[in-house]
Amino acid sequence: MGVTTVSVHNAANLACLQYPSQPTVLVCNHIGFADPHALLEPLFDAHIETRWLAGVEPFESPIKAFHLTGNGSFSIDRGTLDRPALQYAQAVLRQHTYPLVVFPEGEAHYHVNALQPFQEGAAALLKKALQSSPVVAWLPIHLTYVWDNPKDATIHSTLSRTLHQLYAFIGQPVPAGTSASKTALPQHLAPNVDDLCRTVFQWLLAQSNIEPLVPFAPQASWPVMASQWLSTTLHALCNEHDLALDREATLSSPLALMAAKNQLRSLIVRKARAMPLKLWQRWDKQLLRWENFPQPCFLDTWAFNTAEWLLTGIPHTTVSWEKRLTNLRRHLNAQQPSDDPTPQQRQRWEDQLNICRRLKLVQLLLMGANKSAPASWEDLEATVQQLWLLVTHKQRYHGPKQAVITVGTLQEITSQSSRSLPTTAELTEQFKTAIEQLRQHL
User: Fold this and answer.
1) Local structure of residue 198 (DSSP, 8 states)
2) Which tens digits make up the pLDDT trace of 281-290?
3) What are the pLDDT digits (tens) for 30-40?
């Protein structure tokens, strides 16, 4: 993962989570896919078992789903109102046996020294838990990564090597001057990264088979080309999949664009990953057979638990057998198309899923381009990481690095408080302020 060691500040603040006496949510910033692995180490050291609210994408691989579920994770489809996942999260908080870990930013953004806008889901879950408990609590955690060898020449050399690999991946010659330097500073590499951004978006526009809303300008700056690609692609995908959006309002808001991307992805993945009709009919017949046995045998129970977990990404709950059967059939029916798509259609939808991933990455690149402050090593590394994902769809970790975790103090909210309870928006802002303060104290 590129992470060599994990350093924890204020680890004693985790002790209160060993035997939680009230519903508790851990809120942490989200940089990349290494975050859960880094956070698990101090939690294991403190003998704390948790439940993790995760996106649905990692659960699409059965092997990853097995690993994640074993660590206490369950998935939520962010593109729809995922009632089973929300009900399971509420049950975890209501039983308050395990703390619930949530990343309020919603998605990774790959910048070690910045925060993205927070979603209100964690605050909504916590306020919902107040209906069944007089006290709820939340614990802020800040996570970042620092280089084990923080020399400018080392970082410059590592990022320059990635630039060369990206030029090779898209089949473009490397411009002169894009090389490592022993006296490098961020401003020395920034023009090279800017040139790569321009080349990548020229390549992206050239391979796009979507009719542009306005003619692409070959000599435009890369932020202009990125905005054109983003607007055109979002418009085309929404039209094809019958998703009604205010395109201008969506493009102007990072949270709105993230929500649109998740909605599109949810619509597309149901078509691309649906069962063949014959297999679905076999499953439906088996589910109907199970309905006739209110007290199933051990083998049927094990088979159903495994199927429920693999198909929904949520561990089985304590609700009745009949209710679980109804929920699973409803889940499968919602994802089953009326007929089998052709291989060409499935491949087109898989390509569109990659385009959905690119929507978020292009938005992150544009947000970084709008910063007025001079580029830092963290800014450049985030840009290079986002470009790598944009082009290759694969993770890449620059390292070796050390994960630095700072644990805040437990905050309680009492339903019997004399002062008025915070709104969901106010509680979300408290999450962000607490994590920002932990970041500044490093």
Assistant:
1) H
2) 676 677 667 6
3) 999 889 989 99
